[in-house]
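Hey, quick one: can you model this chain's 3D structure?
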Amino acid sequence: MKFQLACGDVMPGCPTSFSAGSQEQLLGEVAAHAAQEHGITEITPEVAAAVSAKIRVVE
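Sure thing. Here's the predicted structure for all 59 residues.
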């Protein structure tokens, strides 16, 4: 099972996509990208909810 997220689904215009074997790994990659590319260093509950809502599970 894979977890996928397109950053553009949360941050319109961003072409970066993520794929990982666990949701935790995916969220770690997304958090690192958000800090480096978007200047988001604090993951608020609202940001976490927006990201979680866009994660797709692929078998």
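One thing worth noting: Helices lie at 23-38, 45-54.
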